[in-house]
Amino acid sequence: MAATPLRIGMIGYGFMGRAHSNAYRKVGNFFQLDRTPVLQAACARDAAKIKSFADQWGYASIETDWRKLVERKDIDAIDICTPNNTHKEIALAAAANGKMILCEKPLSMDGPEGRVMVEAIEKAKVPNMVWYNYRRVPAVTLAKNLIDEGKLGRIFHYRAKFLQDWTISPDLPQGGNGLWRLDVGAAGSGVTGDLLAHCIDTAIWLNGDIDSVCAMTETFVKERQHNLTGKKEKVGIDDACAFLCRFANGSLATFESTRYARGHKAQYVFEINGENASIAWDLHDLHRLQYFDYKDESKIRGWHNVHVSDGDHPYIGNWWVPGLQIGYEHSFVHQVADFIEGVSKGKPAQPDFRDALRTQFVCDAVLKSAREGTWEKVERV
Ligand code: SOE
Predict the structure, then answer these.
(1) Is the minimum distance from the CB of 324 to ligand 1 under 6 angstroms?
(2) Which ligand 1 atom is at minimum distance from the Cα of 104?
């Protein structure tokens, strides 16, 4: 039987607009689902740019006003790929129009704003999801499965880093396309909301709630030319952030992120040390999971380097033949597949808005701690 269309209205055309569009196009070829994404309309203020994006990715129509898009009767789901300061308004309007919502991370500018969004979409009862895509890298999902099976036993330590180096030059402007991430008015924060949010989302998923944090942040370049005003303006984001934390399960953790780690483009790594076993993962080698099991015979005990590409590894059976690895873009395909399956089965895929709000409150506590030099309790959702 032919799958029912799931008509997508995409808002935004940047890096994430492309990553999500690619996922919508591919998912039906590799996953047996009862809804097929249809690229119904793409929306942005610049008509020429959105037309060129729509033509390239195969969207059937364009809009230049997102308010019109969310009201269209021929759209089932709105995908929000716009800067963080626009998420709330769009999500609330989409929910009021009964649309499903897939929102780029982070959910919101801060926790209180995120809470308003959660209340609105839960009241509207619309399926919703936030694009923390790294959960769906097969090696990361395998880590989750091993932890849930109890293979690690009691967890003592969680360590995560997300390092980049693309903002070192003081000549790099802030604001506008791509560079809105450097503009606090559009992004809400710097590496905390952009990069550590990924680390925090994965960490909560793998190791449970974070109880308290103690952080430091730094803004290395204090002023940058602003693309929208044409003036040199104060930089309000955190360029780097490191924090200590305690999880509710008693484990201790360190997190670090920066855009000033010369030589690192997107080094997201985490390591978890449990009573019986340890796990480590590196985005630069994303199809591998490092695994150490103390139960191994001592003669051969050591770190296993698991190539997560076999038919019984998460998601892999849907792709090629065993041993052939997949990459970054597939994490988005998996997320769409899980979202559609969740909608069909009435069992929402995670992280939904409520789940993503937990990350938002950790980010708030991290930024407050850095400002005030204190340990901060994390508000629970
Ligand atoms: C920033 O450079 C960025 O593109 C983030 O916005 C993404 O969320 C991250 O996955 C990669 O880095």
Answers:
(1) no
(2) 8
